Amino acid sequence: MRSEPVKFTVQTPLPCGPVDVTVTDVGVARLSFFGDRERAVTGPAAGDDPRVARVRAALADYFAGRTRGLDLPVDWRHTSGPQREVLRTLHAQVGFGETVTYGDLARRSGAFEDDPEPAMVPRTVGTIMGSNPVPLVVPCHRVVASNGLGGFTGGLAIKQWLLTLEGVLAPTLDWSPAD
């Protein structure tokens, strides 16, 4: 018997503050930087759920620098087609402290080998990154433009913060990791 998905909020040191997470019996199904805090579960229902505890612990370890990524299962049911191929490739192949360009990720995934407009493929991958239902877990912040950081649905401040945490960018004087 499957239990219901649980939606909860996790406090983070990110510039956006807390993130909302939804977990299912399969894994993390959603993560939102700017979610619906009023509907997020708080109290004993979320606190007693081992799925919630696992996500909270993984995020705390990641933000504190005790781990080099988020080793959490992903519920891929909210993805399909090229989006799923690209996101799975990113999840499997681009590790902590690494970056990949939109175009290189497209090539690695093989999702666009027969695309009639190859010049548009990096932009398509950018759109896929923007539709990623589980950022952080599937680390779309590690995907950059060939000429700079590129965009980020959560905002460039979050992307810069995460890339600084992972050692890709040098910290600025006002940057500080989790306590």
Automatic annotation (TrEMBL):
<keyword id="KW-0489">Methyltransferase</keyword>
<dbReference type="InterPro" id="IPR014048">
    <property type="entry name" value="MethylDNA_cys_MeTrfase_DNA-bd"/>
</dbReference>
<keyword id="KW-0234">DNA repair</keyword>
<dbReference type="InterPro" id="IPR036388">
    <property type="entry name" value="WH-like_DNA-bd_sf"/>
</dbReference>
<dbReference type="GO" id="GO:0032259">
    <property type="term" value="P:methylation"/>
</dbReference>
<dbReference type="InterPro" id="IPR036217">
    <property type="entry name" value="MethylDNA_cys_MeTrfase_DNAb"/>
</dbReference>
<dbReference type="GO" id="GO:0006281">
    <property type="term" value="P:DNA repair"/>
</dbReference>
<dbReference type="Pfam" id="PF01035">
    <property type="entry name" value="DNA_binding_1"/>
</dbReference>
<dbReference type="InterPro" id="IPR001497">
    <property type="entry name" value="MethylDNA_cys_MeTrfase_AS"/>
</dbReference>
<dbReference type="InterPro" id="IPR036631">
    <property type="entry name" value="MGMT_N_sf"/>
</dbReference>
<keyword id="KW-0227">DNA damage</keyword>
<protein>
    <recommendedName>
        <fullName>Methylated-DNA--protein-cysteine methyltransferase</fullName>
        <ecNumber>2.1.1.63</ecNumber>
    </recommendedName>
</protein>
<dbReference type="GO" id="GO:0003908">
    <property type="term" value="F:methylated-DNA-[protein]-cysteine S-methyltransferase activity"/>
</dbReference>
<comment type="similarity">
    <text>Belongs to the MGMT family.</text>
</comment>
<comment type="function">
    <text>Involved in the cellular defense against the biological effects of O6-methylguanine (O6-MeG) and O4-methylthymine (O4-MeT) in DNA. Repairs the methylated nucleobase in DNA by stoichiometrically transferring the methyl group to a cysteine residue in the enzyme. This is a suicide reaction: the enzyme is irreversibly inactivated.</text>
</comment>
<keyword id="KW-0808">Transferase</keyword>
<feature type="domain" description="Methylated-DNA-[protein]-cysteine S-methyltransferase DNA binding">
    <location>
        <begin position="83"/>
        <end position="168"/>
    </location>
</feature>
